[in-house]
Amino acid sequence: MEFLVWIVHILVAAGLVGLVLLQHGKGADMGAAFGSGSSGSLFGASGSANFMSRATAVLATLFFVTSLGLTYFSSQKHATTLKPVVQQPAAPQSLPAVPLGGADKSGAIPK
Q1: pLDDT tens-digit readout, 35-79
Q2: pLDDT value at position 25?
Q3: How much helix, strand and coil, in percent to the nearest 5, is found in the chain?
Q4: pLDDT classification of 17: cutoffs 50, 70, 90
Q5: Residue 12 and residue 59 in contact, taking contact as beta carbons nearer than 8 Å
Q6: Distance between CA atoms of 20 and 56, rounded to whole angstroms?
Q7: Class of residue 33 by CB neighbours under 10 A (exposed 0-12, middle 13-18, buried 19+)
Q8: 51-81 and 2-22 helices cross at what angle (nearest 10)?
Q9: Which H or E run includes 59?
Q10: What whole-number distance in Å separates Cα of residue 16 and Cα of residue 52?
Q11: N- to C-terminal Cα distance for the chain?
Q12: Burial 35-62, CB ≥16 within 10 A → b, else e
C-alpha cells in the first residue's frame, strides 16, 4: 500500500510541476496592457478559473493527501521498530580494599 502511495505521490508531483510551468503568469499580460494589445485589466482577468487552474488545485490537494498518507506510513513503521529498552541495573562495583590502619611509617601498605 505504501508503494502505491509513493507512485501516486511522484506522479502527482510531476503533474503539478508540469501544470505550473504551462500556466500563463499574471504578469505576462502587463506588456500587452501598456503597448500592443488590449487586455481586460492590468494583470489579466482574476475572477475566472480555467481548466488549468482547477487541475492545479486538484493536484495540489492530492499532493497534500499523499504527503499525509506517507507521513502516516512512516510513523507506523517507526512505532513498531522503536520499542522501549529496559536497562538492567548496573552491578555494584567494589572498590579496592584499603586497610583501616593505613600505611606504616615506611610508606608501604601492610599485607
Answers
A1: 555 555 555 555 557 888 899 999 999 999 999 999 999 888 776
A2: 74
A3: 55, 0, 45
A4: very high
A5: yes
A6: 7
A7: middle
A8: 150
A9: helix 51-81
A10: 10
A11: 74
A12: eeeeeeeeebeeeeeeeeeeebeebeeb
pLDDT at 16 over 90: yes
The helix (H) or strand (E) run that includes residue 31 is helix 30-34
Entry pTM: 0.54
* Residue 28 pLDDT: 62
Helix (H) / strand (E) element for 5: namely helix 2-22
Highest mean pLDDT among 6-10, 26-30, 34-38: 6-10
Domain ranges in the chain are: 2-81
Spatial distance between the Cα atoms of 12 and 21, rounded to a whole number of angstroms: 14
Contact 5, 66 (CB under 8 A): yes
- Within 10 angstroms of residue 13's Cβ, the number of other Cβ atoms is 15
Contact 19, 61 (CB under 8 A): no
Nearest to 2 by CA among 53, 73, 99: 73
